[in-house]
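Researcher: Structure prediction, please.
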Amino acid sequence: MVSILKNEGMLDTIADGELQNKGNIEDKWLNVDFDNGRMHSIPYQWGSTSFMVNLWQATLIEMTNHKDVSNNLIKLVHPNIK
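Model: Predicted structure follows.
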């Protein structure tokens, strides 16, 4: 999305020194393919998602990867739904 907005001339440039905490951004997040050097955008979120399941109420489902989790999440959260 940043590339599209940049190409349309809809983004301003973040000038050197304008972003006081830019030194706290790791290099791997500064040089991204859609905005090399982060001249028009900054990373604003980082985190992870986790799920907790009450195994006393849920039906056990064999899962081997994240796709299995997302495909079966409704069954884990609402075990009575088929």
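Model: Strands lie at 31-32, 35-36.
Researcher: Thanks, that helps.
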